């Protein structure tokens, strides 16, 4: 079992620097900094690594006047330059091992140079990636050379609705973090930085789920091709969805845990869904959408394809419920005019079209619909009866009711004696009001909170199964 160290809710983390100087956590101004809490944590007897994810709100999207939606911060160099200097002050004050930024204004050469120069001077290697179709923003990932070397870097271009991208980094610790039976050896990790599509309406659930599926598929392919299956995986970013959504459920079913929730001992229950927030969106709503996901090397979990299908069945049920259909009515809707009391493949596809999940640029492809059909047709007789419908579709978990999912499919890979995993040691949101589910009106660094997590390494034996929350 992996031990979890609970975060101290009364910690002064981010309020005082190592010299005791005060910091304005709302305006972002820092005076006289000489080091941060996280860097000092790494100097303790227990080796630690830290990771920060932050959507820094690209100036091309930041509105300066709610009455004039066309007036953006990008029109005022003094505004965006000062704000991004403050963001960099904070990042360099914390000095996390890994920094993952979203909505990085990659279209502005001066801002790009500002980040590259200051991060490079502080000892970071930087990687940037623009969104597709000439979007103005993108991603930036920075890795501190004192803690990691980058073994490989991949860019993931989704090429779908939303022009989203992701970065995949294979890193190795600069010094051994743990000692196993074979002696000291550097540890390796996979890091992903991404920013999912905003769910403007429920019809975009499929494309958001597909974006995550592509990330996990790329991770699995990379691990298989490089024979690196037993590494911790850290997924960072703005997931644009809360703990009640389909993406959260999908990642949980794949063995990932939310580092912040683990640190604060929050569960997947609805009661804990709104204990913290990290974003105030353009509609004025506040919710928790920024996550640092962790998956330790584990023996068992559901196959990726199975988890994907279960998540899509949940979305289908969600749309049927939105149409106020009962269980019997939903079966009749999918059966349509078929006379024999069965759902046929053609009727199934027609039902998906009517709920806007098929036949749209951001919906299911016909190949995906066929794969779903094959899983729904459990006995393989070419039709789905009421029992199969209930088992595969109606009993699927909807996002408002989802609970923890754990897999049971055994990993066919050869078991190894000792592997290195990660404990969640500390996790903190800034501004700190976000940890109480509130959003301070005078916070101006971004419309997102900054999430920083500290991990400590742990030796796990091959016979152990990691408890995921």
From TrEMBL:
It comes from the Eukaryota. Keywords: Calcium. One of its GO terms (molecular function) is 3'-5'-RNA exonuclease activity. The keyword Ligase does not apply. InterPro entries: CCR4/nocturin_mRNA_transcr, EF-hand-dom_pair, EF_Hand_1_Ca_BS, Endo/exonu/phosph_ase_sf, Endo/exonuclease/phosphatase. It holds the Pfam family Exo_endo_phos. The keyword Iron-sulfur does not apply. Residues 53-303 form the Endonuclease/exonuclease/phosphatase domain. This is Endonuclease/exonuclease/phosphatase domain-containing protein. It comes from Jatropha curcas (Barbados nut).
